Structure formats: structure tokens, C-alpha cells
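Good day; I would like, with your permission, to put a structural problem before you. A protein sequence and the C-alpha cells that stand for its backbone fold form the material at issue. The record follows directly beneath this note:
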Amino acid sequence: MIRFSQGIRFFKIYFIFFRYNFNRDLIHRRFKRLHFFTYFNPWSFRNHYGRAEALRITLETLGPIFIKFGQMLSTRPDLLPADIIMELSKLQDRVPPFSSEQVVRILERVYHLPLQKVFQQFDRNPLASASIAQVHSAVLFSGEKVVVKVLRPGLKKQLRKDLDLLYFIARLTQRWWSQGYRLRPVELVREYEEVIFNELDLMREAANASTLRRNFLHSPLMYVPKIHWEYTRKNVLVIERIYGVQISDFATLQKRGVNFKKLAESGVEIFFTQVFRDCFFHADMHPGNLFVDVEDPENPRYLGVDFGIMGTLGPEDQYYLAENLLAFFHRDYRRVAELHVKSGWVPARTRIDQLESAIRTVSEPIFERPLGEISFAALLIRLFQIAERFEMEIQPQLLLLQKTLLNIEGLGRQLYPALDLWKTAKPFLERYVRERQDLRSLVESFLNNLPKKLSKIPELVERMLGNLEPAAYPEPKEKETEVKEDIVV
């Protein structure tokens, strides 16, 4: 049951949706019974945004919780059309900061000390402010310059209110929209709830940053700042301060003479290195989270921040993904269909020839264009939608990967429009598959799995011995001798 305060918020959301002309698709085609509501909206039909752009602007207007929800929706190409997925991937959460007095109170409560005894210097003016937290610059007594990330106060309470409202809207959608069953709105809100509450634990983010830093410790492609664990808590993160140009600031990058071609290709290389070497990738690589070290403009280096959302791939998913991409590159659609079945991404009962035909129908028109003009991410989106018809089981890690690839490719093409993602990716894929299939790799895989296999030997022997034991048959009963007793009368 919706409360009075939630009712007010609900109608505010309603008017914002109609202000940006979102009613064109949402009401006229889907909610025909609610058509009369359009007459109560003074902004209706004033703005002529496309449906995808209207949805993005609406979510940005509604505030940080809805922006985060939109970012999560951008990872679901199995549910939403490609144009909406592409538009939602542009969402970035920039919100007004909370007061410096609140920041000081939070920090002093966390450290049980006055702020001047924790930091040599602390700038009360925030460097940046987002939906979950805001960051301030500081200097430790060791002289090291750091960034202090502080969770927004009262966030959980506000989050719970908006989540309750999202659940209410989701149930309405599921009941009144004929296609609501396919969108699975309640399940989406539940998934968002899990993601957003994970982001509220800054110790988790610190652990992600530490792992990524170790993976790229001596890399010329990317630098990950150091975590100061002694100052980090669940609601406070202290990390080394980095200096660079935000990657969306093209004018400054151009002024500094940055090699845009190399910068774009390095972004693709970083992504595939994380996926196929480390099985651990930054899944929130939008322009707001990426900076560039421009000290050597010919060899620019990425500087990573915000490690709240990371993706992982298991060895099997990693291998099947590489094989799939290579098969696509060679237009071997039957191999793609077979890999989908073999990996368990679609049911084993799926007819290979039908899946092959569907994949060919999507892919052939795209591959008729020059490789440099092909959108890798858009192709993956179409393939997820095709696979849904064949009851593809949604893999969360693959959806995160698809979203990250969408961001990387979009950013790369902005930096260098002639970026050929296939050309940059192909050597990684071929090298990975070759290494996976060579003798050394097979031996290493065998040795890695040997302890697990050996641990099962006692159980195996016990079963064998159990099968060798003679069957226990019942003893034959002795034939009863009939004894005639004298009857005494």
C-alpha cells in the first residue's frame, strides 16, 4: 500500500515523465485505459524527444536513485530495445554536494578524533559529488596527498523510500502493461536493490581497487591509485590522489597534444586485458570515472577511479566468450550456435540449425559494412535479443561485460572515430584461445585440478569395494518336518 508521502512523489514522477513527452509511447500504446491522464499534463507534446532520450532525461531529472536505476537498466539488453540501452549508457550521476559540516561530523565519529588530528590538511570544499558519496582532498601527516570519499548521510533511509516506490511502480507496470511480464519489473527492482546496497560498502570498493591495482601495477596503459587501509571504513574510503584530465574534456586533451588514436586503442586493450588475462574487470567505465595522465602525450595513460562495480568471469565463460567472438569474426555462425549450446547459455534441446539461421539473419547485414564501421556492442545487444527467443539463460556477468564494452566502444569512437575495435581485439582473442589450447596450458589445467580429483579417490574406492561385495541373499529355510502329536483325549 502506498503512503501519502509516496503518493506525492509518485505524482511528481508522473508529471516529470509527461513533461518530456514520454507519454507518446508509454501511455498511448501501452496504457490505453489511462489515456485520459494525458489531458491533465500542461507539458504534453511540447517537447519532442525520442523515447530513449526522453527516458534518459526523465531519470536524470528524478535524481540520483533513479539515475542509478537507469544505469542498471542499461545492462539489460535482453529486456530493453537497443536504442534505449544505448541512451541509458550515457547516464552520469552529478548531484549537489551535502554540507561540509556533515562531512566533518561523519569523519570525527568514524575516527573518534578531531579532524585536525587525523589529517594534516582537509579541504572542506568537495572535489566531486555523486549520488552515493562525495569526495574531498586531504593531506596525511606523512605528507601523502589523498582523496577522502564519504557516503551521503541518511542515504539508506532515502534509498529505502525510493525503493518502496519503485516496487509500487513495478507492480503497477506488471499488472497494467500487456508486456510487463517480459520486462519482469519487480525482478529488476530486486536486482537493483542488491547492486545499490553493495555500493554502500566502501570496504568492498577498496578491496576491488586493491585487486585492480595489483593487476596493473607496472602497466604503461593504466594506473590505479593506492588504498590507505588504515583510514578506510565501511562509509569512508581514503585513496591516493591522482592528477589527470577527465577523458570527456576533449578540448584540453587536444590542447595538450594527446595521441587520440593511441588513447582509444589503449582503452580497448585495457578492457580485453582485464577480461581475458585477469577475469576481473572495471564494470563502470563511463567518462566520469576515467582520467588521462598527459605527461607523455604520445603515450597517454588511463587513471581509474570509482571501483564500486566490478565484473568477474569464470574460466568456462571466458573461453566460450573468446571462441564466440572469433567465430563471429570469421562468420562461422554454426560454430557460434554450437558454442551457445555447449556453454549452457541456451537449453541443450535447442535446434542448432534454427539458432544458426537466427544469428546469420542478424549478423550478415552488419558484416557487409567495413569492419571499422561495425559496432561491436550493438551487435552483442542484437544477439542477446535473438538468444532470448531461444530461452537464453541470462548471465549477470555477461550483461555487465556487455555494458562495459558498450561504454568503451562509445568512448573510443568519440576519441578516434576511425577506431576499428575488431582489429584491436582480434590479437587478444587469438592469443588467449591459442594459449588455452596449447600443451603447457593443458598440463597446467590438469595439475590445477589434480588435488580436487585426488580428493575424490577415497570415495571412488569405497564405491568400487561396495560394488565388489557379494550380494547378501537370505538363508534358505529348512524344510519343516511335519510332527504329529498324540492327541490326548
